[in-house]
Design a protein that fits this description.
Layout lengths: L1 H45 L2 E6 L6 E6 L8
Antiparallel strand pairs: 1-2
Length: 74
């Protein structure tokens, strides 16, 4: 009975560690996305910018054009 409780506790700790690692990984990815979008927005505010994206599902090409004339304020 005690071994069963120890086993369950260990599994819960491992599960919590996995969740923490996944949340940290997600946080890093979101930070990277934020950095890229901020750089794109700053660039777009300085001059015209065109972003071309290919849909992985259907293969359709999507082009997004942005034009800005003012510097972004923070």
């Amino acid at each position: 009975m005690a071994k069963k409780l120890e086993s369950e506790t260990t599994e819960e700790e491992l599960s919590l560690e996995q969740i923490k690692r996944r949340v940290d990984t997600l946080d890093q990815r979101l930070d990277n996305i934020d950095t890229m979008l901020t750089a794109l927005a700053e660039r777009a505010m300085k001059r015209p910018l065109s972003v071309t994206i290919t849909c992985p599902g259907c293969g359709q090409i999507i082009e997004i054009g942005m034009v800005g004339s003012e510097k972004m304020t923070r």
